[in-house]
Specification:
831 residues; alpha/beta; 6-stranded mixed beta sheet; 10-stranded mixed beta sheet; 23 helices
Length: 831
Amino acid sequence: MKKLFTICLFAIFSILQLQAQVKSPDEFLGYELGTHFTPHHKVAEYFRLAAAAAPKNVKLIEYGKTNEGRPLLVAIVSSVDNISKLEQIRKNNLSLASGASNNIDLSSQPVLLWLSYNVHGNEANSMETSMKMLYNLASGTNQQANDWLKNTVVVIDPCLNPDGRDRYANYFNSVVGEKPNSDPASREHIEPWPGGRPNHYYFDLNRDWAWQTQLESKQRLALYNQWMPQVHVDFHEQSYNDPYYFAPAAEPVHQDITPWQKSFQIVVGKNNARYFDEQGWQYFTKERFDLLYPSYGDTYPLYNGAIGMTYEQGGIRAGLSVVTNDGDTLTLKDRIAHHFTTGMSTLEVTAQNHNKLLDEYKKYFQQALTTAPGVYKSYIIKPDNISRLKKLMELLTKNKIDFAFGGDKSGRGYDYDTQKEESFTIGRNDLIVNVLQPRAVLANVLFEPQTLVTDSNTYDITAWALPYVYGLKAYASKESIKGKYNSLDESKVASSNIDKPLAWLFGWGNSEDLQLLVALQKEGIKVRQADQPFTVNGKDYPAGTLIVLRVENEKSIKDIKNKIVQVSAKLNKPIQAISTGFVDKGKDFGSSVYPILKQPKIAIVSGNEVSSLAFGEVWYYLEHDLGLTPSIINSRDINNLELSKVNTLILPDGNYGNFIDEGLKNWINRGGKLILMEDAIESVLEKKGFDIKKKDALVKKDEKPEASKLLFKDKDKDDYENTIPGAIYRINLDASHPFSYGIGKSYYTLKTDRKIYEPLTNGWNVGQLNEKSLMAGVVGKKVRTELKTGLLIGVQDSGRGNIVYLANDPLFRNFWENGKTLFGNILFCSY
C-alpha cells in the first residue's frame, strides 16, 4: 500500500511539474488567446519553449524556411514512452507503408495523426488554435489527452504558410483600432492586393501538394513522406457567413478512395457532430468540398493510404469579430474554440480506433503490390523530350513513385494522343511506371487518361494526366510491364572542338535551352535562331536551333569561345561547332531566316485589377525557371513605358479595360511586345487597334430557347451543361510558327473557361481547336458545342511590335511543364 501511495504521489508531482514548465498560450503571449493576431515568430517561439519545457513529451523539428526566411516547423507530441522510441515508430510506420510483410506488433505501434494549420494565410485562426492544441497535449493538464496519447503520436504543423499569414496579420494589426470593428464593410475586413491567402510568390499552397513547385511544399512533403500518417486533417476557413464544415466529403469522390477511407470519415464526422451538438454550434457535411483533385491537403493523404480530411471554419477576413448576414457576431475566440474542438475530437476517435486504423493502413499498401487500383497496370512514357522526361522523373521521385526504363517488350495500350488502343514497342529510354507498387493509387490517379467524375459540382480541375502536362507521347497498358533498367541511358553528345568555328549551335525546346539563351544574352552574346530546319555537315537541325556566329560576336567579346564553353558547361549543354555556313539543305547562314533574338526586358502588371495567382505564376516562372528579373509595375503605368527599358509587357489574367490607352498602343507600334493572358484579352475587345473578336455561341436558325429543367432543390448545384471546371484540350499548332518550336504540331492545354475567339483576319492563327480537341475532363454539353472550333493562341502585328493573345494559362500552377516551352517561345522567339 505504501509503495502504491508513493507511485501515485510521484505521478501527481510529475503532472504538477509539467504544468509549471509548459506555459499556457495566454501566459506566454501576455494576452488572452483570440484577442489579438499573433505574429508567426511568436508562435514559433512558443513551440520551441514548449518543446524545451517538456522534452519527454515533445520533439520539435524545424524542416525548412520560407522564401522570406520564416521557419517551418512541426511539434511531435505523444506519451513519454512513445517519444523515447520515436525513431523506431517512424521506421515501423514506413515499413507498413512499404507493403512488405513484417512482424510489427500493431497493438504496440502508435497511430500517427497529423494536424496541418494555416495553409492559407488569411484563414488566420488556425495558427492561434495550434498553440492551444499544443498546450493541451504537451502540458499534461488534459487527462483525456494524456490517455489518447498512449497509443497516438500527433504531429502539429502550426502554419504551412507563414509568409501569407504574417502578410494578413500585419495588415490587420496595422489598421485595427483600440477595439475591433465588427462591421464587415470596415477596412480591417478588406485586405489590400494580393491578400494573405497565397505564399510569397502568390501561389495557393493547398493546390501544390502533389506538384511541390513551391519551397514550402517541397520541404513539407519531404518531411511528410518520412512519416506517412494514418490520419491527416487540414484546417481551413471559409466565408464568415458559413457555419463549420467537416467530413464526410461531397461528391465527386475519386473511385480509388477505399470504402474504409470513406466510412472512417463518417466515424470522425459523427464524433465531431456530437461535440458541436452539445454546444448548439452549426455545421454541415457532404457539401461543396469534394475528393478528386490530387493536390489538396485532404486528397493527397487519401491517395497515400491515410484518412485525409478538410475542416472549414467560417472566418476568412473576419478579423477579431464580424457581424454575419444572420446578425450574429463571430469572434476569433469562437473560431479557435471550433477548430480546437474538432482537433481534439479527431484525436479521440483516432486513439479509439487505433488498431483498426493501423490494420487497414497495412492492408492498403499490401494490396497495392498485388492489385492495380484502376483499369491500367502500366504506363509507358516515350522520351520525346529528355528534359521534360527528367522533370517528370523528378516529380515521381518527390512523390516516392517507383519507375524504371526500357525493355524489349511490345504490346498494345491506350494512346493518349489518338485516344485509341494502339500498338507500341518499348525503347531503352522509355519510362515505365508499373502501378503494382506501394504508391499504386497516387501513381494511377496522376496517370489515368480519364478520371471518372460522378458529379460536376467539383471544387477544382477534373483532368491532370501527366503525359498531357509534360507533352510526352504515352500509352496506358492493361499488362503488368516492368522496366529493365534503373536509370536513363544518357550517352552524351560530344561537344565538337573547332578552334575558330564559323558558329556554335545549340538545341531548342526545353527549360535548359531557355536558361542557356538567357545566360548567353546576359554575357552580351548575340544569339540567332533558325526559323527553318537545315542540314549542315550531314546533320539535321530543326527550326528553333540557336546559332552564335563567332565573327559577329568577336567584335565586342574578345574571349567569345571561353564564354561559350563556360556557359554551356555550367548548364551541361553540348556545343556543336561548325566551320561552314554553306548548308546541305535549307538556307545558308547569311539568310534572313536566322534573325538575332532580342533580349527581353520584361515588365509584369500587378495590382487590384490582376489575379494575384496568375501574376504569381508569371513572376515565379521568370525568376526561378529562367533567372530573369522582371520589372513589376502598376496598371496605371502601362501607358508610360519606355521601349529602352521595357520591350515586353505581360498582362496576366485580369481586367485592364480602364487602363488601355493610346500610350500603350504607341509603345507597341514602336516595337513593344504585349502579351495578353486569359481575361486580359477581354479588356481589349472592341478597342481600336486590337483585332481580336470573341467567337459567338453557335445558335441554329429558328432555334427556340429551351425551358429550364433546373429544380429548386438543385439551385446550389452547377448547371452541368454550362460547366467546364478544368479540362484538357489539344490545340492544333501552326508547326511553322516560332511558338511551336520544341513542341510540334499540337499542344495540350488546360481549359478552365468557355472563352474562345474568332481566327484573326490579319495576323497569325497559331493555335486553334477543332471538333476532336477535347482529350480529358468534365465539359458540359453546351460548352462542348461552343468549344468545337476557334482561336486560343494568336499574334497580331502592330507597327514594329506585336500583340500576343493567349486565351489559356500555359503556366498553370507552375506544374504545366509543356506550357513553359510555349511561354518561353512567346518571350524569346522572333515573329
